[in-house]
Each structure stands twice: as C-alpha cells, then as structure tokens.
Amino acid sequence: MIKNTRFAEITPPETEQRPHADTRHNITRVDEYAWLRADNWQEVFKDPSTLDPAIRSHLEAENAYQSALMEDTAALRTKLFAEMKGRIKEDDSSVPMKDGPFAYGSSFKLGGEQPRYFRIPSGGGAEEIILDGDHEAEGKAYFRIGGVDHSSDHRRLLWAFDDKGSEFYSLRVRDIATGADLDDRIADTGGSGVWSASNDGFFYTRVDANHRPSTIFFHDLGMETSGDRLIYEETDPGFFMSVGGSRSNEWIFIAINDHETSEYRLLPADNPLASPRIVAARETGLQYDLEEGGDIFFILTNADGAKDFKIVTAPVADPSRTNWQELVPHEPGRLILSILSFKDFLVRLERKDGLPRIVVRERASGEEHMIAFDEEAFSLGLSGSYEYDTETMRFTYSSMTTPAQQFDYNMRSRERTLLKTQEVPSGHDPEHYVTRRLMAASHDGELVPVSLIHHRDTPLDGTAPCLLYGYGSYGIAIPASFNTNCLSLADRGFVYAIAHVRGGKDKGFSWYEDGKRAKKMNTFFDFIAVARHLVAEKYTAHDRIVAQGGSAGGMLMGAVANMAPEAFGAIIAEVPFVDVLTTMLDDTLPLTPPEWPEWGNPIQSEDDYRTIAAYSPYDNVAALPYPPILAVAGLTDPRVTYWEPAKWVARLRARSASGNPALFKINMDAGHAGASGRFSRLEEIAFTYAFALKAAGKANVGPFSS
C-alpha cells in the first residue's frame, strides 16, 4: 500500500498503553488499551457526564485530530449536505393508514428534524397533530422517538422517547383530546408498549441495568408504576424479548428469541390477569413467528428441517406444536421472510434467486398469485395494516434508480393503486444512471451477488473510484433500494456497489449459515472477492475502492483490512464491532449472551475462542500496509461500545506499516444510530462521503451535472 498523500501530516493523539493480561483456555492475550473501557459504563449510558475524565480527554483529543485532518473538506461537506438535503422533501408526509374512524400518519414540517404524528378522519377532514417531535426535542442534544401506538378507542397515545442515545426509552401516555401527557411515566423500557383490549392499561418491556429486556409488566392507567403487575420474567440473559398485539385486538404476544431459537407466549388482550401460555417451548434451532388468523394462528417456521421456512396453521384453542398443520410447504431456495394475515387472505414476502417477491393467497380456496415487477434488481417491503378485516394491503417498491413507491393493492381484484412516489425536490432522472447486478466468484467458487449503480457518463475503464458497502451478519440482507445520498457519489464519478456477502440471507438461509460461527471467514473472503471482481471487470481499481460497513459490517471492515489491506484505497467503519473476542468474553455487556449463537461462546468453548480470535479485527492488527481508515462511533452506544473503535484505532496507529492515518470520530451526544435529527444525520453522512472523496482524490471534483 502506497502512502496516501492527500491527508496532511498531523501528529495523532498518543494513546497511553496500560497492558492488561487476560488468560482463557490457557491462552493469554495482552490488551494495552483496555483502560479505555469505562468501568461505570451502565452509569455513563444514562448520564454521559460521569465518564472518567481521562477517557473523555482522550476521546476529545481524537475528535480534535480528525477535525484537523478533515478541515480542508469543510466546503465539500457543506456542498454534500446541501445536495443531500435538496433531495429530501422537507415537508414530506406519509400516506395515512386507515384504522376505523381515523387514518394515522407521520410528517415533517419545513426545517424540522423530528417527525410529527397526525391523524385525519377517514371520511376526510382536518389534520390533527397528536405528537410533535420537534416540540418534544427542544433543548435536548439528542432525541429519538420510539414506538407510537394509539389506543383502539382513539382517545390516547402511548409513545416512547430516548434522550441519551443509550436506548433506555421512557414511556408516556397522551390524552389526544387535550394534548397533555398523563402522570403515567415509566423509565428504562424497551421503547414501546401495547394496549389492553379495554384501553385502561398497557403491557411493556422493562430493561435491566445491563440493558437487557428481562421483564414484561402491565400498567393500569392512573396507578403508581411501582405497583405494575409482572406478567413474565425471562431469566436467561441470552434471549431478547418484546411484547406486541394482534390487529384484531384479541391477543397479546410475548416474543422471546436469540439468533437461532424462538418462543412465543400469549394471553388474551381483554384479560391482563391471565397467565401467558406457551405456543411451542424453546428448542435450540427451532424458530417460528406467530400471526393471527381468526380461529387459527398462522406460523412461519423452520420446523422439521424447513431451512428456508414453511407456513403451518394451529388452532387457537391449542396451538402447541403437536397441532401444527402444514399450509405452505418448504421449498429449498425459496426463503419465506415474513407473513401478514387478513380475514380472507394471507400475504407472504419471500426471496428466490436473490430477489424479493410478494405472494397473495386466498384463504378459502388456497389460490395464490404473485405481484409482478420488471426491473433487474429491486427492493420490496410489506407496510403492514391497522385493520384485519380488509381486502387492501400496502407495500413499497424501489430500485437503485427508481425512487420508493407506495402502493395499495386490492387482494381480491388485484388492482394496484400508486399512492405516493418519493419526491426528489432537486430533481432525479433515472436515465442518468445505470444499475447492474453482477456475480463475483468467491474463494470456493460460490457466486456472490453485487448490486451497483453509476452515472451513465462514468468511464468503466478501471479509473473510476468505488464505494463498496457490505454487512454480512445475522441473516440481514441489504436491499437494492433507492438511496438519494449515494447519488452525490455517483454524480462525481463513483461506482456505488453493495456486496451481498454470506452471513446475510440474500441467497436463502444457507447463505446465512455459511457466514456465521465456524464459517465466518466466508463473509470476509466474499467481500474481498467482490472487490477483485470489480477491478477485473474494469469498474474500478484497488487503490480507488473505499470499503464501508457499519456495526457488524464494521467488523467486516476491520477483518478485510487485516486480510487484504492492499485491496482497498480507504476504509470507513461506522460503529464497528471490531473487538469481537473481548466483547464475547464479557457476559455483563447488553448483547453478549444473546450473541453467542451468532458468534460462539468463547467463555465455555476453546474452539469458539480460537475461531473468533482468528478473525477478530482488534486481535489481528499487525505491521501491515493499511489504507487510510475512518472509524465512527457514539459515546452512549449500548450495541457496539465506544471503546471498541477507540482501542482499534489506537492499535492501528501503533502497528501500521503504511503511515496512513487512522481517524476516530465520536459523537459525544449519541449512540448506535448516530445523530437523531434527519438533517444532523445528513451532516454525518456528508462527513463520511467527504472522507471517501478525499481518500480517492476526488474532493475537488464536482458532479457531472455541474
């Protein structure tokens, strides 16, 4: 790797080394930067002012360093921000969704950072603002609204907010008629709740001191929260838990799961005193999701070897597994992603041959039909419904060149009604762009899908820069959807590409299994193979590729930096999970026990320890020719703690053989999702794009349209 001379010679902060030894399975590791982990991290998440002054001083020095290195991009960032903001309809509004006498939606006002929630009479009439996010956020450095749920009698609103970025949500109850919040206030919740059938109380999840959703409570309106009734307590710290309700307002669902096992408990919505009953007891590897269906439940499951999932039914009277009856059989290679039921129809979203599709089934006859689309690569999503007894369902469609479109679809007549097309106020002509879907051969011959977009005037002779995005964990597939922000790169001659690597479910459930635990290295090999394929096909060159990934995708960035630093011209790692082994060894952290099925448990298993140690980015930093690297984090992030990237950057600087800079930008007022306002978030994206342009030597290049 040749040193990138586009960054000034500025001395970075010198991170003090305080060697700390840790021995597991007779293997000793020494971590010279372990002191950057705040011992009182639980307290810091709730009150950032309690952070150790020495740690705070170091983080502020890191911010000063990256600010100095990026000072020459100030004008570029302003321009990028203006471009991206110009593609957003500032006073945008969702299409209201009908629920009996009202239709509910959300909107933004001109210049507003936070959403407003409104309703209108179903028959037409004046809009009524029932929650104004900008008003609630006044005076707060960080503010994010969580769940918003109106009662079935339309009198009250249950809503949640987080004002630290640490995802400890507070619940409030609003009287819609007066606009005032009641005295019922609950802290440290999971961020949402669900009303009982009588609307005189609600169910909610409380998180414990280690940020784990461990209990479900019922709160009676007007009563002291100290007397809230415990509905269920989950004693296994390895499981996530949430509570929700059915659209018919008949059932309360308690969903319990880790990354490979699930369990549902349910109780009648009109009887909060009832004891939750199990649908199917947790069994390692058995996954299922529950959907109402009148006198039956529809269950999406991988039971009986249905790796790509099947749909079964079970009677409401006894939905235990012995009564499951197959409805839609398992079909290898067709991954059923989700189901949505109505009184007369069952809708499923599935993926086959790497592309999503929607299938509608008439419940009485069993007749099925698929909603057709024409483009080579696209994204689909089910928008849900407030109503159960309806013939209309809603879905969204977009591609990398087609702005998002929202449709109402009559499942009986098969008529499709376009409700809204995403507006791009500054203008968007899809004819100016080319989108492609490629296949790159990985190290073992597997073909990795690649979605990309570039301007039609971009030369494809190997001279174009490329931003290559990847994730590859938890079975999450990155959709080939419309992204107005990346157009700022495409307009400056970038190829914007998404590598659909193993660890996601882009090619079925096996694609996920082949990128986790003992097979995790496939994720990294796939990403490197995509980079090399793009070079071989003359889309770009290795020194022009800027790799980008966030969270577990940030781990991907750290791993490929160690494995093939010469394959990339720069790397952007956002909230990067780079200290995998240390985190998986710390069972006090919020996500560690629930994550063991995904990564392995190195506390109990030496094999898992060695597997993780072989790729954990922090553990494998060496005297390698690293390209310029930007790490981005949030101080109150409970998912990927700030000290992971802080330690990683310090070690990169100490060991890198290239002399290229490693930058660390930390938002001292935010968590995992970054800045909470829609425009302040754009400023963060403008910063990362400016880094990409600077690293690629395109910081002074204007868009084609100019």
From TrEMBL:
UniProt KW Coiled coil keyword: no
Keyword Iron: no
Biased composition annotated in UniProt, kind: Basic and acidic residues: 15-25
Molecular function, one GO term: serine-type endopeptidase activity
Keyword entries, A-Z: Hydrolase, Protease, Serine protease
Natural source organism: Neomesorhizobium albiziae
One Pfam assignment: Peptidase_S9_N
Domain Peptidase S9 prolyl oligopeptidase catalytic: 481-698
Region Disordered, annotated ranges: 1-25
SUPFAM superfamilies assigned to the protein according to its UniProt record, in alphabetical order: alpha/beta-Hydrolases (SSF53474), Peptidase/esterase 'gauge' domain (SSF50993)
Protein name per its UniProtKB record: Oligopeptidase B
Stored PANTHER family: PROLYL ENDOPEPTIDASE-LIKE, PROTEASE FAMILY S9A OLIGOPEPTIDASE
Protein family according to the UniProt entry: Belongs to the peptidase S9A family.
Gene Ontology biological-process annotations: proteolysis
Domain Peptidase S9A N-terminal: 13-421
InterPro entries according to UniProt: AB_hydrolase_fold, Pept_S9A_N, Peptidase_S9_cat, Peptidase_S9A, Serine_Peptidase_S9A
